[in-house]
Amino acid sequence: MKKHILGLDLGITSIGWAHVIEGENPNESEIKQIGSRIIQFDNFDRVDKQGNVSESRDPLQDFASGRGLSPNADRTKKRGARRLLDRYKMRRENLVDLLLKSTIINPDTILVEDGKNTTHETWRLRSKAATERIELDELARVLLAINKKRGYKSSRKAKSSEEGYAIDGMGIAKKLYEENITPGEFVFENMMKGRKAIPDFYRSDLEAEFKKVWDCQREFYPEILTNDFYEELKGKGLRVTSAMFWNRYDFNTASIKNLDDSLKNEQTIKYSKRDQRKLQAYKWRSDAISKKLDKEQMAYVIADINNNINSSSGYLGAISDRSKELYFNNETVGQYLYKQLQKNPHTSLKNQVFYRQDYLDEFETIWTTQAKFHPQLTEKLKEEIRDIVIFYQRQLKSQKSLISFCEFESKEVEIDGKKRTIGSRVAPKSSHLSQEFKIWQILNNVVLRKSRSKKRLSEVDDLESLLKDEKNEFVLDMESKQLLFEELNLKGK
User: Fold this and answer.
1) Domain boundary residue among 43, 74, 105?
2) In this structure, are strands 68-70 and 45-47 parallel, antiparallel, or unpaired?
3) CB 439 within 8 A of CB 483
4) DSSP secondary structure string, 222-278?
């Protein structure tokens, strides 16, 4: 007698089912029906290419148009928010307990704004604490405010080797400001001295350079560099900016083939072709703020700077610019924000994000100032509040176990009765070696075919004869592969 089996796969938002008929032998068994049912289809969320989650009002249409749909994205987002809130509350409880133990506050101390006209009292105290004496209970309120928002953690402003090496962008910004030079002039000067590394510039410095170039070149090309065109170019990348010059004025951006003789010295003649083209481009950028360029060169410079601005993250760029403003004005986060509240009490402070290091600098400034007036504020207590409570950050969990074992350098062994794989692991996809290997793997498989011949390019007189001869095929020689590798390794595509 045949058995009828109903199999169910119960998920959070779906049920998978199968009706299986099991016979006396495998040949008589069959899957009669199979399917799935989606529960609460209206609760699907839409996920864009940047990973932003939003409610999907029409899941069928979003799915048909190729947009990512996820029944779990919103749940994951809210779970993450709950965890952040729980961790903040735990830090706050630990901070209050520590302040009580150190007798900075007592159980009756009011830690919130209380009374009339005290809406911005904590901000006033936070601004004042950086330079003047405040009471210990007021300091506790300031520390609780810093604990609430402690900044965006980034290696760009990291000061310790454990947090990773980063180019000192603030030092470069200071040099640009003090010497009144643009990023283009800075890079050109360095490349002429043999230094090819190009640092990340602050978005505001790039925007200032763009404005300088535009204003200078507009004196020579007023019919091209109009105010309307200036607005249209905002937020555009390299290709779009170049295309706009062609579509609007019928000329392309300049192409760089060789390095000018005036730029050749002991350092620059050793550069690769790519670096020499880069040097020539920065020469144009350096000249563009004071001299007339050919219109094609002018278009190249504007497209290049506009692309740099567009490539920089708007979110991180805004954070960096705020950080730079603190540095040049010698202000803390509290002083910077309270100054805004004094000008406009209704201004929004919610989305003004700063680097974690800016909050650490503010904490250090406030503690150093208040320690002069309150002997209870010892160095040991400072380290405990700063490193263990407010700014504690757990290390990222190791993902080493997710990296596969090399199929040629691994083997299975039996340990305590269980089979385990031991041996060398493969290089992670993010490693430079893995990326270089992938590029070379692709390059070694590239063959340009005209027919079934296996002649190489080096065996053909020139490209023209190759194209005329219908019986030729050529494989890229090593020099061509090396040039392609340098290009692909730099761009990552």
Assistant:
1) 74
2) antiparallel
3) no
4) TTTS-HHHHHHHTT--HHHHHHHHHHHHS-PPP---S--GGG--TTGGGS-HHHHHH
Same-domain pairing of 28 and 120: no
| Structure tokens belonging to residue 257 | 């083939």
Instruction: For residue 79, tell me if it sits in a domain.
Output: no
| Rg of the chain, C-alpha, whole Å | 32
The CA-atom distances, in angstroms, between 170 and each of 151, 163, 276, 293, 328 are 17, 17, 28, 31, 10
CA distance from start to end of the chain: 61
140 with 105: CB under 8 angstroms?
A: yes
The stretch 307-326 carries a mean pLDDT of: 84
Task: Give yes or no for a contact between 54 and 45, defined as CB atoms under 8 angstroms apart.
Answer: yes
- 89 and 62 within one domain: no
Closest CA to 335 of 161, 140, 125: 125
Contact between 347 and 336 (Cβ < 8 Å)? no
Contacts of 476 (CB under 8 A, 6+ apart): 443, 446, 447, 448, 457, 484
- As to burial, measured by CB atoms within 10 angstroms (0-12 exposed, 13-18 middle, 19+ buried), residue 13 is middle
449 in helix, strand or coil? strand
Is the pLDDT at 324 greater than 60? The verdict is yes
Q: Give the C-alpha separation, 403 to 430, whole Å.
A: 11
Instruction: Give me the half-sphere count of Cα atoms (radius 13 Å) on the Cβ side of residue 446.
Output: 15
Domain hosting residue 114, numbered range: 84-153+317-390
**Most trustworthy range by pLDDT among 168-182, 236-250, 306-320:** 236-250
Contacts for 63 with CB less than 8 Å, ≥ 6 apart: 69
Three-state DSSP class for 176? helix
Q: What is the mean pLDDT of residues 421-435?
A: 85
Tell me the average pLDDT across 313-331: 85
Tokens matching residue 67? 């947009």
Domains contained in the chain, number? 5
Question: Cα separation of 386 and 91, whole Å?
Answer: 11
Q: What 3-state DSSP class applies to 87?
A: helix
Phi first, then psi, for residue 37 (nearest 5°) are: -130, 130
Q: Look up residue 239 and give its two tokens.
A: 């290709």
Please tell me the pTM assigned to this model.
Answer: 0.64
Lowest mean per-residue pLDDT among 322-326, 448-452, 475-479? 448-452
pLDDT, one tens digit per residue, over 141-180 is 999 999 999 988 865 444 444 443 344 567 788 888 889 9
Residue appearing with tokens 């150190």 = 102
Q: Is the pLDDT of residue 455 over 60?
A: no
